[in-house]
Design a protein that fits this description.
9 strands; Rossmann fold; alpha/beta; 180 residues; four-stranded mixed β-sheet
């Protein structure tokens, strides 16, 4: 039986790159495609970037308890299917999901056996520096910093913290956690 690992953290902390390196370097990670109730865009294929459902199907999935987490963004619904995760776990695969902190907290409530990891730089000023370099204005940098502070506050439910200052070390720590 595989295990579910849920990774969250602030934008700009390098999570996508770290998680991609871990997944690319392992053969025991099962892929779980997120689900959505939005309309398919031109060129999209059902089951590749998303599984697409009609709103009635979506509501049925939620009523049955199949949504480990879900959210609405820009008028569209997105989430993670319990059934799709469980299929991978039952096949002996580990699952690694990268989710926003609020969505990770929701998943943790619905599947408490998931191992939740919060990844961030060791010093919040590292994030501030990143935001100041990439933001279009000081106001945007401040907003992103407030969001990161709120995510850090929410992340208290997480089982483990990994610092992203040294991405290779973060990859090693996440691999060791999966192997543990």
């Amino acid at each position: 039986m595989g295990r579910l690992f849920v990774i969250s953290g602030p934008s700009g902390a390098g999570l996508k790159e770290i998680v991609a390196k871990v997944i690319d370097g392992r053969g025991d990670i099962g892929r779980v495609v997120p689900v959505t109730a939005r309309k398919m865009k031109a060129g999209e294929v059902n089951g590749e970037s998303f599984w697409f459902f009609e709103l009635e199907q979506w509501d049925d999935m939620k009523a049955r308890g199949d949504m480990l987490e879900c959210t609405e963004f820009a008028g569209n619904d997105y989430g993670t299917s319990r059934r799709l995760v469980q299929e991978q776990l039952d096949a002996g695969k580990n699952v690694v999901l990268l989710l926003e902190t609020e969505r990770a907290a929701m998943l943790n409530k619905n599947m408490p056996e998931a191992i939740c990891v919060y990844m961030e730089p060791s010093d919040p000023e590292i994030l501030r520096s990143i935001y100041e370099k990439t933001a279009r204005s000081p106001v945007e940098a401040d907003v992103r910093m407030r969001i990161a502070d709120e995510q850090r506050r929410i992340s208290l439910f997480c089982d483990k913290r990994i610092f992203t200052d040294d991405p290779e070390e973060a990859v090693s720590e996440l691999n060791a956690l999966i192997d543990g």
